[in-house]
Write a structure and sequence with these properties.
The N and C termini lie far apart (about 100 Å). The chain is globular and about 50 Å long. It is an alpha+beta fold. It folds into two domains: about 5-40; about 50-330, no CATH class. The chain has five helices and 21 strands. The chain has an eight-stranded antiparallel sheet, with helices on one face. It has a five-stranded antiparallel sheet with strand order 4-21-6-19-20, covered by helices on one side. Strands 5-8-7 form a three-stranded antiparallel sheet, with no helix packed on it.
Length: about 325
C-alpha cells in the first residue's frame, strides 16, 4: 500500500470534502426543483386572471390561449374559451357503438383528430375538440380503434352512452344551457343532450380542490359562474419543456382562465386538444394544439427531447364544438 505524504493527505481530504459538499448541493438543488415544481401553479399565477383580449380567435365564439412557462416550472398550457351564447353553438361527443353493451362495449375508441376528421362528413362539423372521459380497457396498441367502456356518465345527442352516476359531469341541456355538477341517481336525464364525465371536481365554486403532488399531462373542463363560457384546458406533460400539473393545478388554472367550476378529465397519454383549421393549405386541416404523449412514454431527459414526436391515443370518447346554421334551422 502506498504511503501518502502529509501534503497528499491534506489534498485528498480536501477533494473528498468538496465531493461531499457537491453531493449535498446537488441534492439540495433537486429538492428545490421538486418543491418549485409542485408549487408552480400557486406561485406567479394565483393572483392573476387571464386577459382574453390577447388570445387568438379560431372562430366567432372560440378563443385560444397558449402559455409557455419556464419558471419556476416548465409548463405548456392550452386553453379554449367557448362562448355558449354564440348563435348555433352545439356540443357533440362520441356516440354509442353499433354493438353497444352497457358497462362493456359502449363506444369505439378514436383519436381526437380522427373524431374531428370524421365529423367533417356529417352535419356535426367540429371546429375544436378535446379528449374527455376515462375509459377501460386501453391495451396496446394505444392508437387502435376498438370497443371500450366509459368510466362515468355520458350522453350523445340525447342517447345515454354510459349510465354510471355519482361522478363529476359536464351537462348540456336540449335547450343549450350548461352545468357542471356531481351526477346523482336522481338526475332526470330526459332533458340532457350531451354529457361527459371526469375523475373528479377540481374547482368548486371558485375554490381549487386539494390534491397530491404528482405531475402528469392533464385535461380539464370548466364553466364560468354565469354558465356563458365553457373552457377546454390541456397541460402537456412528461416532456422537457412541460412537466405536467397536479389535479389542484388544473383547478387553479381553470379559475385563472375564468371558470368557477371545473372537472379533472382523463389525462396522461390521453390529453389531446385539436382544431379544424380552414386556412391550412394541407388537405388535412386538422391541427394538434397541444403535444400529446399517447404512447405513454416519458420524454423528460435531453436525449428523449431529440426523439420526441407527438403521438395520439385512441380515447374512449372525445368532446367537440360545432355550429349549426341558425337561419336555416329557423326556416
Amino acid at each position: 500500500m502506498r504511503t501518502l505524504t502529509k501534503e497528499q493527505k491534506v489534498i485528498h481530504i480536501t477533494q473528498m470534502s468538496c465531493k461531499f459538499l457537491g453531493s449535498l448541493n446537488f441534492a439540495f438543488t433537486l429538492f428545490l426543483l421538486f418543491f418549485a415544481g409542485n408549487q408552480s401553479i400557486l406561485s406567479d399565477f394565483d393572483t392573476k386572471s387571464y386577459d382574453w383580449s390577447t388570445a387568438k380567435e379560431l372562430r366567432t365564439g372560440i378563443l385560444h390561449a397558449k402559455i409557455e412557462r419556464t419558471s419556476p416550472q416548465k409548463m405548456v398550457i392550452n386553453c379554449l374559451r367557448i362562448d355558449s351564447h354564440t348563435p348555433g353553438m352545439k356540443l357533440y361527443t362520441t356516440p354509442r357503438c353499433s354493438n353497444w353493451l352497457d358497462d362493456q362495449s359502449e363506444t369505439i375508441r378514436q383519436t381526437t383528430r380522427d373524431f374531428i376528421r370524421q365529423s367533417q362528413k356529417t352535419d356535426q362539423k367540429l371546429v375544436v375538440a378535446i379528449n374527455a372521459s376515462p375509459f377501460s380497457p386501453w391495451p396496446a396498441p394505444y392508437q387502435k380503434e376498438e370497443p371500450t367502456d366509459i368510466s362515468g356518465f355520458a350522453v350523445s345527442q340525447g342517447i345515454v352512452v354510459s349510465n354510471k352516476k355519482n361522478v363529476a359531469s359536464l351537462l348540456a341541456s336540449k335547450a343549450g344551457s350548461l352545468q357542471i355538477s356531481m351526477v346523482s341517481t336522481e338526475l332526470d336525464i330526459s332533458n340532457v343532450e350531451t354529457a361527459v364525465s371526469g375523475f373528479s371536481l377540481c374547482l368548486t365554486n371558485g375554490e381549487p380542490s386539494s390534491s397530491g403532488t404528482q405531475l402528469h399531462p392533464r385535461t380539464g373542463v370548466g364553466l364560468s359562474k354565469d354558465g356563458q363560457y365553457l373552457f377546454f384546458l390541456t397541460i402537456d406533460g412528461r416532456q422537457t419543456n412541460s412537466y405536467g400539473a397536479t389535479v389542484s393545478g388544473v383547478g387553479n388554472l381553470l379559475k385563472i382562465f375564468g371558470a368557477y367550476n371545473g372537472i379533472n378529465m382523463d389525462g396522461g397519454g390521453s390529453t389531446t386538444m385539436a382544431w379544424w383549421d380552414p386556412s391550412r393549405s394541407s388537405s388535412d386541416k386538422c391541427r394538434l394544439l397541444n403535444r400529446p404523449v399517447g404512447n405513454g412514454d416519458d420524454y423528460r431527459d435531453a436525449k428523449s427531447l431529440l426523439d420526441f414526436v407527438p403521438t395520439e391515443r385512441a380515447n374512449g370518447n372525445n368532446l367537440g364544438v360545432y355550429f349549426v346554421d341558425v337561419e336555416k334551422v329557423n326556416h
